[in-house]
Amino acid sequence: MNLPNKLTVARLALTVVFVVVFICPIPLGETLALTLFLAASVTDFFDGRIARRDKLVTNFGILMDPLADKILICSAFIAFVGRGLMPAWMVVLIVARELAITGLRLLAAARNVVLAAEGCGKHKTTSQMVAIISILVMISYAQWGSWAQAVFEFHVLGGAWVVWFTEASKWVAVFFTALSGALYLRRNRSLYLQDL
Length: 196
Hints:
Distance between the termini: 40 Å
Shape: globular
Largest sheet: 2 strands, antiparallel
Low-confidence stretches: none
Strand content: under 5%
CATH topology: Four Helix Bundle (Hemerythrin (Met), subunit A)
Order of helices and strands: HHHHHHEEHH
Helix content: over 70%
């Protein structure tokens, strides 16, 4: 197994550990969950780049890299619902979009068509990562000491900036998720309309 594929598998393993740590009441669990999520995100950053740079692209990587990304993102959002950190309808929309686009890509692959990533999809991924990290920071910074409270509880617009920033980041993630999904389905509608 080459290095990029090892990083992809590591991301899947880190996702499982992240979820377990997040839902189990352990000391400093929120901070550990944030650290695990950041570590998993770093593997996402490097695996594709290393594979392309060193010409280590494999069928396993082509399939599992985006799937591991979706599992990481969806697992985090679903775990947030369980803790009351995000409304269920937002997470249902996010997960439904990811499943729909994955299904469309599988349909395209069955027809030997490669669907490239689009700009709006990259904004979607970035906004989802920002939302997840901001939620994890919001629930964990109190464990970091008084310096973190001074930084993250700084009042802007009538409240602690980390709270309203986190709330705004959820809505931005939902907006880009819905928009990118709609655009992707519309642009590639010939793939699924012919089977209806």
